[in-house]
Amino acid sequence: MKRRTLEEIALSWAPEDGDRYGEDKKKFIEYLIHNCKGFKNGQPIKVIIKNGNFKYEYNKEAFQHQIIVPFRESDKIFIGTFQKGIYFIESSADAKNTLDFYTNRIRSEQKHLRNLKKIYLSLLERNVFLQESFPIKHCRVA
């Protein structure tokens, strides 16, 4: 039996009953396949919102949470990401670009986390010093 392509899988996707955003999710998949297939054809989310002819109006953040995130949590529809936008993954090279993007992003976030921990520990030490140097005998809660 022939294996279905990622595009065939995506085009056969149907929203669950009662999915308020199901119609827009379907339009999003179709838009990606017709306009953003592959890394080289990626588009910014704002452009997709403007040109996607969606039922609801979205800002970038709402679109990400209501439309894109549910697909990213699924293992059926693959949406690629890079600094300039998003695209429908159709090849291993497209997937590799997204893997590289997320790997770099995670490394950056881990660096931020390490820096935040250093700041936290520094502030914690400072607070302990202040509390030992200037004990609070009476404290009123307003």
Show the helix and strand layout.
Layout: H1 6-11, H2 22-35, H3 45-51, H4 60-72, E1 79-82, E2 85-88, H5 92-133
Antiparallel strand pairs: 1-2
Key features of this structure:
5 helices; 2 strands; mainly alpha; 142 residues; 58% helix; single chain
Query: Please, how many helices?
Result: 5
Question: What is the H/E string?
Answer: HHHHEEH
What is the distance, rounded to the nearest whole angstrom, between the alpha carbons of the first and last residues?
A: 73 Å
Mean pLDDT: 88
Main beta sheet: 2 strands, antiparallel
Uncertain residue ranges? none
From the alpha carbons, calculate the radius of gyration and give it in angstroms: 23 Å
**Overall body shape:** elongated
Count of strand segments: 2
Structural class: mainly alpha
Strand order of the largest sheet: 1-2
What share of the residues lie within helices? 55-70%
Q: Give the amount of beta strand, in percent.
A: 5-15%
Describe the protein in words:
With about 140 residues, this protein is mainly alpha-helical. The protein has a domain at about 5-90. About 60% of the residues lie in helices and about 5% in strands. It has five helices and two strands; from the N terminus they run ααααββα. Strands 1-2 form a two-stranded antiparallel ribbon. A hairpin with a 2-residue loop joins strand 1 and strand 2 (about 85-90). The termini are far apart. The mean pLDDT is about 90.
Brief overview:
The protein is built from five helices and two strands, in the order ααααββα.
